Amino acid sequence: MRADAERNLEALLTTAARMLAADPAVSIASIAAAAGVDRRTVYRRFASRDDLEQAVYTARLDAVEAAIADARLREAPIPVALHRYVENVILVNQRWPVDFDRMLADPAMNTRRNASIREVDAFLARATEAGFLRTGLPEGWAAKVLPQLVHVVVRQMPHLDAARGADLVVDTLLHGIGTP
How many CB atoms lie within 10 A of CB 36? Predict the structure, then answer.
């Protein structure tokens, strides 16, 4: 794909993610205008609104998978991997907001998301075994708390940059449910 076409596609998908998350009924014409492309360009690339939504969901899941890979959850030192993962996921959530109910209605998207969740769960188990997270908590507690902390940064404290947000999330997680 040409560089300008690649930029247009990226702008279209990130704009569509933001606008569809805010208003699932937003028109393709509105998305195209906000992305700075012609409506016909959207329809040349995507046969339908559903195809555009699927492309947004695919791009988001690609970004999540890249965030997990970059964090090196299986081999990097736990505090480093945790911070890198949280910072990356904050960036993904800022760039690719989606309606999770709509995204997860697609079985293939749900399968991909579940694979990412398993990776993070395995990392949290490794962190617990290494003594960074306290044992004896209800099963899955850290896995439930971590995304909620990220959600607070992304949705309720958007003025924080990803690095500062990750600092706060990691500190809260490790000292709130970490070993003393």
Answer: 12
97-124 b/e (C-beta count within 10 Å ≥ 16 → b): bbbeeebeebeebeebbeeeeebbeebb
pTM of structure: 0.88
Please enumerate in sequence order all residues whose Cβ is within 8 A of that of 127, keeping only pairs 6 or more positions apart, or say none.
Answer: 78, 82, 133, 142
Residue 91's pLDDT band, with cuts at 50, 70 and 90, is: very high
Q: Is there a contact between 147 and 105 (Cβ–Cβ < 8 Å)?
A: no
Q: Give the contacts of 72 (CB within 8 A, at least 6 positions apart).
A: 81, 84
Say how far apart CA 155 and CA 133 lie, in whole Å. Answer: 25
- Asked if residues 20 and 98 have their Cβ atoms less than 8 Å apart, the reply is yes
In the predicted structure, residue 103 carries a pLDDT above the cut 90: no
Q: What are 119-135's pLDDT values in tens digits?
A: 999 999 999 999 999 89
State the chain's mean pLDDT as an integer. 91
Residue 178 has pLDDT above 70, yes or no: no
**Count of CB atoms situated within 10 Å of the CB of 167:** 16
Question: Could you tell me which residues come within 8 angstroms of residue 108 by beta carbon, excluding any fewer than 6 positions away?
Answer: none
